[in-house]
Amino acid sequence: MNHHTTSDLSDPAPYHLESVGSGAVFPDHDWMLDPPDEPATLLRAVYERRQLRLRGPGHGLYTFADWLPLRRQLQGSAAPVSYRSSGLAGALGLDDLWITFSGYWPERAALMRTCSFKETEAFAVCGRLKAGLDKVLVVASAGNTARSFARVCSDNGIPLLLCIPEENMDALWFDKPLAACVKVLATAAGSDYYDAIHLSNLACRVEGFLPEGGARNVARRDGMGTTVLSAVTTAGRIPDYYFQAVGSGTGAIAAWEANLRLIADGRFGHTKMKLMLSQNAPFQPMTDAWRLKSRQLPAMDEDEARRLAGKIDAKVLSNRKPPYSVRGGLFDALSDAGGQMLAITNDEARKASSLFQEKEGIDIHPAAAVAVASLIQALENGDIGRKTMIMLNITGGGEAKFKETFPLIYAKAETIIPIDPEPDFVREILIKLDFS
After folding, report:
1. In 92-145, which ranges are E strands?
2. Which of 16, 140, 357, 397 would disulfide-bridge 200, Cβ 3.0–4.6 Å?
3. What is the count of structural domains for the chain?
4. Quick one: 256 and 375 in the same domain?
5. What angle do CA 413, 414, 418 make, to 5 degrees?
6. Do 264 and 363 belong to one domain?
7. 81-84 sheet: strands from edge to edge
8. Contacts by 89-95 with C-beta closer than 8 Å and gap 24+?
């Protein structure tokens, strides 16, 4: 494997893991995803450095390494970029709108080459892996996460198995070919993100394959939490409101956790940001549950879920099994911080996307457009004041600009897997793959 592009952190941040449910404390010796004997609670990383020290722009995402659970620093990362809006803010009549942009926008020094904040997850999760680990990381994705992990693992020589719905394969575009250490399996036409997760779970039963863990991985959440760290260290204080579109809600949980660390830091105020979160209607299970103040998601028939997911523009927001009910999950985040779950139609999101491009000068992903539309909806409903400080998390953008700038190469699947495959069939496929 090509490990020459990684470097040990000269000054890693000491941390331990803590169960949100019981408060039990664990050292992070291994790839711990769940506290022992506590299946329905998340772990959280607790960092010894209570005050965040920025390491500088030359470190990319790792400028925030004090609050990332890292064993090493990988090459090629970029941090989210935050700035005070004048264009969109002026159009909406807002006094203090801060935009945090994750994507490709060189004019704003935003240099994420996969154009998505999922890069923050990939660089954090892969930085938590031990160098030279003799296992294959397994990631399920509906698109942006797959592209981000593929690029990070390819560039840094980390063996990776991606599981992705066949209909989302067009999300796997790159400006250079993937290394042989990255392999893709696609679930057959008609499948969705949940089917890709099911395939990844089958893969992780095979010896030598390591589950990435999704929301249960503290590195994934703390990587995404850097969007809030970017906004707050740039603006100088914690915002009053936080807007983001959510599929799993992991980014919003991450925002809440980062907010709590920033309050403990003591230099940025003691505000708990109200979480203003949105889903793309008609796929809105978390919105429906939160409106009832229910910890339990509504029951959803699999075929009906696939049908609703097929109707939305922002496919990445169609997670059927999000970490909503689990202790430390999205229900707890909303209950503690306050806020709302909003439903946004395709039409509302498309109009918001056009407005953002016109006023800010960059294209954005459909999920980010849902977040912009939710800001407009909240203003129209009178849910937020025009003088409050608002953080708008633009989770992906600049893809059109990137594709105009670089010739693209599309990854191909090694094979197409039936929607509900036999475990032995999956095992046979995996045994034949060479990740070296």
Report:
1. 96-101, 104-105, 110-111, 136-140
2. 140
3. 2
4. yes
5. 80
6. yes
7. 81-84, 96-101, 389-394, 241-245, 274-280, 339-344
8. 90/359, 91/355, 91/359, 92/375, 92/376, 92/379, 92/386, 93/379, 93/386, 94/379, 94/386, 94/390, 95/386, 95/387
**Residue 359 resides in a domain:** yes
| pLDDT band at residue 194 under the 50/70/90 scheme | confident
CA 49 to the chain's CA centroid: 24
CB 84 within 8 A of CB 90: no
Among 34, 41, 71, smallest CA distance to 211 is for 34
Cβ distance 110 to 401 under 8 Å?
A: no
By CB atoms closer than 10 A (0-12, 13-18, 19+), residue 1 is middle
Written as one letter, the residue type at 74 is L
Q: Tell whether omega for the bond before 285 is within 30 degrees of 0, i.e. cis.
A: no
Distance separating alpha carbons of residues 199 and 128, to the nearest angstrom: 24
Whether residue 328 sits in one domain with residue 285: yes
Task: Please count the other Cβ atoms lying within 10 Å of the Cβ belonging to residue 259.
Answer: 25
Residue pair 36/3 in contact (Cβ under 8 Å)? The answer is no
Q: Write the CA distances from 397 to 176, 241, 394, integer angstroms.
A: 19, 21, 7
Region 79-84 average pLDDT:
98
Structure tokens at 262: 């920033």
**Does one domain contain both 185 and 256?**
no
Short-list 115, 130, 82, CA closest to 390: 82
**Which residues partner with 105 through β-bridges?**
110
Residue of 380, 367, 412, 385 lying closest to 95 (CA atoms): 385
Q: What is the DSSP string of 198-214?
A: HHHHHHTTSTTEEE--G
- The CATH number of whichever domain residue 170 belongs to comes to 3.40.50.1100
Given the DSSP bridges, would you call strands 241-245 and 274-280 parallel, antiparallel or unpaired?
Answer: parallel
Instruction: Judge if 256 and 291 occupy the same domain.
Output: yes
Q: Which residues form the domain of 367?
A: 81-112+220-402
pLDDT at 217 over 90: yes
Q: 3-class DSSP state for residue 118?
A: helix
Using an 8 Å Cβ cutoff, are 112 and 103 in contact?
yes
Please, are residues 250 and 258 in contact by the beta-carbon 8 Å criterion?
Answer: no
Instruction: Check: CB of residue 243 under 8 Å from CB of residue 168.
Output: no
- How many Å apart are CA 296 and CA 85, to the nearest integer? 37
The answer to whether the CB of 129 falls within 8 A of the CB of 71 is yes
* DSSP one-letter code for 278: E
φ/ψ bin of 76: left (φ > 0), alpha (ψ from -120 to 50), beta (otherwise) = left
